[in-house]
Every structure is written in C-alpha cells, then in structure tokens.
Amino acid sequence: MIELNEKLVFDRPESVIDRPTHYCPGCHHGIAHRLIGELLDEMGLAEKTLLASSIGCSVFLYNYLNVDAVESPHGRAPAVATGMKRARPDKFVFTYQGDGDLASIGMAEIMHAANRGEKICVVFVNNTVYGMTGGQMAPTTLIGQSTTTTPNGRCQTHDGSPIRMTEIMATLGGVAYAARGSLDNVKNIRQAKKYLKKAFEFQTNETGFGFVELLSGCPTNWKMTPLQANERLQNEMIPYFPLGVYKDVSEDGGVC
Amino acid sequence: MSRIVVQEDRCKGCLLCTTVCPVDIIVQSDRFNVSGYKVAEVPEADADKCIGCASCALICPDVAIKVYKTPKKKGGK
Lengths: 256, 77
What we know:
The complex is a heterodimer of chains A (256) and B (77). Chain A has 256 residues and is α/β, with parallel strands linked by helices. Helix content of chain A is 37%, strand content 20%. Chain A has a single domain, classed as Rossmann fold.
C-alpha cells in the first residue's frame, strides 16, 4: 500500500532535461551532469548560466542540461568561455571537458585561461582514454593501459607518463581553486559535489578560476563491464590520481 | 516504509546501483526494456527492506531512480 504522507526525496533536477542520454551503460558522465544540474538549481544559477561545451562524448551536453550553450572547437572551450565571460561578466560561465579535449588538444587554452585567472569554472572529466573516437591513448592514460593506439599497453619510455592536470593547475597563479574528485561511490560523489560547489562559488563571488577534475569510468573503451570499470577506477586510477583539494585561495588568505 | 521507482525505459542495466545499496535488495531482473537492457529492480519480497537512503539514485548515471520516503510516526511505524 502506498502511504499518503510519503515524500519524494530524490528526483531529477530541473536543470537536467528529461531525455535518454547517448552514453554507454555505466558511464559516469550522467552522474557529473546531474551534480552540475543540482548545483545550478540549488544556487539559482540556471537562468544566467552559459555553457562552453566541448568535443568528445560530452559533445551533446547541450541536449541534457537546460542552459544556454556554445559548442566550442576541439579543446577550445576555455577560450570560448573567456570571450563569453569578458563580454557578459554578469553571467555564470563554465566549461565541461574530457581528458582528450582538455589535456591534449586544448592544453594551450586551459593553461593560459587558468594562468590569466579568468573568472570561469572548468569541469574536467578524466576517464584516461579518448572515449568518442574509439579509445585511443590520451595524455592521462595510465602506464600499461591497453588502448587502440597502445595495444601492448602504454610504455613510459616511449609514450611518457600520465599527466596530473589538477596538480599542474594548482601551480598556476590565476587559479583560485583546484580539486580532484571521483564518481565511483556514494561518498566520493557527495564529496565531488562539494568540490564543484566550491568552484562555482569562486566564480559567483568573483574570486577567480575554478578547476574540478572528476575521475570517471569508461567501460566500453576499457573493455570491461560497468562494475569492473568501477573497480578499476578505485584500484588503479585513484592511487595514481589522488583525490583532494590542491589549491584553495580562501584558505591561503585570499586574493586582492 | 520507503521505496524506489526505477524508470525502466531509462535504466541501462549497468548495475552500479547494486554496488551501493546498504541492504543489498537491488538485483537485475529478467525483463528487457525497449532498448534491450535488463533493468534493475527490487524484488517484491524485499520491498519493505528499503531504507530510503537514496544511494542508488545518487550513483545512477541515467537519473532513472526516484526515491520515496515516509517519515516515521511517533510510537512505531
């Protein structure tokens, strides 16, 4: 029997459009979308948000988040966001990028946007492969990880080491907030939402550049089931990409 | 009593929800949905064990789970 005084305690946030996503089963992009949607609703930003969307699996983000969006060329989302924020400083501007987009093709844009201290937020979803194009090696691919371009596993002497973006961001002067979260379990998802909220607040109170990396799984390109991919994230990715806050200017005495 | 409602046409059968349920009542059903995925469900026999923690909804990548919770009344259920 359904009791009359029961409450709906969990439902789709208004900013997340009610439509099926094109993501593979077990892909963590959907969780990241929902966290952003919840925050835009809770912080009352949905009506004044501009999204600079990227290329990759998240290319159709404008279909899933109910905000105004500009589709940027591959990797150039921070440059597009810079233009939007400078033209309309009253708007809330964020980018949503994958690791191939941000850490490889768009490395120049993200470094300089961060170093200039543009008052934008960057959500960086790291799943250690180029997802949409078929699982090629990305700069964040772990040593030994087999991809379509490194079938015998990534070799450190030949292909270099995986880039830790959040650590790099934390060293740049313009960055106000840099943190790394993960989307593999309930505790980490709640923590990731706190990181995102903090990064968003650094923009709403006009402090500076906010960067949040979210470790995520890619079952299809890792050739695993969603549950195996979740375990790999916990056992292999988190030890190499430690979670936590790497820079927070509000704790360092703030900026002028 | 709490309960979850799985929106079956959205569920992709990834079963991430089964990894986080503290009372382990979510299982994969034998039914296929319109996309050909075997959806997650709570068997009828276990329905009253749900504590309404919303962990499953929190990890669901497809926002396919709604959680209903009934506030506890004074003096028992």
